[in-house]
Amino acid sequence: MSTARSAKLIVKNETTNQFFMLRALYRLTGVANQSSGWQMIKPEHDGTPVEITFPTGVTSPTCEFRLHAIKYQIAEDPADPLAITFDGRRLVVEELFVPDKNNWFEHTLVDADNEETIEIAANFPIISIKSAGKTTVHLFRRADL
């Protein structure tokens, strides 16, 4: 049985690089390296909000969550490997909670400026990040949880 961990993402306004990596996201989901499932993607931003799809199970990928004001540009914060910049907004991973052996991940996004909390929960085989239906990045869950 996995040891319970907790996690929170804090959103703050910061600058964004033009080319970016998903290291912070694959670390968040426990992926070990590039060959395990994360990719680099080019920023082709056209103003369309990012769509993050969390499949509720291997056979029923139906649950979707949209970050309306956050575009898909992502940059790693060199000062903090568990921090991500989404097009000017900094996401800092404070904790990650894995409550059971079925890989149910629960994420909380907190907009520090507006004090708005967005809860995301998913039992996922992958996380897909898409922009305008053109670019998709897959992050695979850990196999040893």
Quick summary of this structure?
The chain is mainly β.
Mean pLDDT: 33
Number of helices: 1
Q: How many beta-strand elements?
A: 10
Order of helices and strands: EHEEEEEEEEE
Distance N to C terminus: 8 Å
Strand content: 35-45%
Largest sheet: 6 strands, mixed
Shape: globular
The helix content, as a percent range, equals under 10%
Radius of gyration: 14 Å
Q: For the largest beta sheet, what order do the strands appear in spatially?
A: 4-5-6-1-7-8
Which residues sit in consecutive blocks of at least 5 with pLDDT less than 50?
Answer: 1-78, 80-145
Structural class: mainly beta
Describe the structure.
This protein has 145 residues and is mainly beta. The chain has one domain. Helix content is 4%, strand content 39%. It has 1 helix and 10 strands. The strands form 2 sheets. A 6-stranded mixed β-sheet has the order 4-5-6-1-7-8. A 4-stranded antiparallel β-sheet has the order 3-2-9-10, with no helix packed on it. A hairpin with a 2-residue loop joins strand 4 and strand 5. The longest helix is centred in the first third of the chain and has 6 residues. It is globular and about 40 Å long. The N terminus and C terminus are likely disordered.
